[in-house]
Amino acid sequence: MSTVVRRLTCVAAAAATTTAMAAGALLLGAPLAGAASWTRPPSGLLQWYWQIGTAKPGLAGLPPITGSYPSPGAAGIWDTDLFYDSNTPHAGIPTGPSPVVRALHAAGKYSICYVEAGAQQTSFPDKRDFAPADYGNYAKRYQMQGYPNEWWFDLRGFKSYVPGRPRTLHGAAVNIAAGLAKRIHWCALEGQDALEPDDLDGYTNRGATGVKGGGWHLTRADSLGFERWLAFTAHHDGLAIFQKNDPADARIDAPTFDGMIIEECNRYHDPCAGPHGDGTPYLKRGKPVLNAEYVQDGETTKKFCSTDVAAGISGALFSVDLNNAKDYEPCAPAAGTADLSDPLG
Description:
Order of helices and strands: HHEEHEEEEHEHEHEHEHEE
Strand content: 15-25%
CATH architecture: Alpha-Beta Barrel
CATH superfamily: Aldolase class I
Shape: globular
Distance between the termini: 8 Å
Oligomer: single chain
Helix content: 10-25%
Structural class: alpha/beta
CATH topology: TIM Barrel
Number of domains: 1
CATH class: Alpha Beta
Largest sheet: 9 strands, mixed
Number of helices: 8
Number of strands: 12
Radius of gyration: 19 Å
């Protein structure tokens, strides 16, 4: 398919679902003073590209944003990092529209803003917005296994959150929400279309010393409350939102979230789709499911692409570092599906 046709198809798909009113928040019982709108992601099988680490911030650290299949430039959806997309030097805090997002939109792309949400990395430029107590005062107990510069947030105070009612946040959740709300607002300030909040599943992970729930004994109820807050806040700021992993919550989140990003559902035989599939609640609602498999785990497109395409999942092979396009191989959807069949032959 030609780059022009692919670009126009992506734009048309996005335009067909451009305005989503605050019904998503209302499904969660949110009392709203006014209506919010956001650009829903295009549905159907789409090539997507994901890069959240680069040698250089801005466009200089990304591959060409236009091109033909299977290059990243052919992808209709791009998922890139909030701070690396910033208009300020050295991946600083954004103060206005992002040159990266502006270029992506000019090329007809849908832009997703990657944000660390359920954990804290102290290398971020906004680290002063979070108190050390929010993530356990650097104690190893709350450290993410395998990531010495990352700690799980204390999300217990989100458990009883009622959308639109900040007084239902408690403890550390009050300050965490304030800091993350800034990040989400910066995504909107950059002009991004959607939010990808990472690390929603702390309750399924152990901290570095082996304590469950990221060291905090986090529960699924804590996670669900956190996800309610994220969805309400993103939509209130005019952003669509993707659920990141945490498939146990997909059935509850799917009515309100706008799509899902999953990692290695094929590698771990979750399964990805079907009666108990990770992405099934979203697929049933016609919402996009983006799947990433990693070359370092021995995955190849021959192993998973036919399964993903048959299920309606947009799959791609990446390097686990997500910092370059060297190992990138997107699945080629079957002829006749949205976005990848060339009507001009």
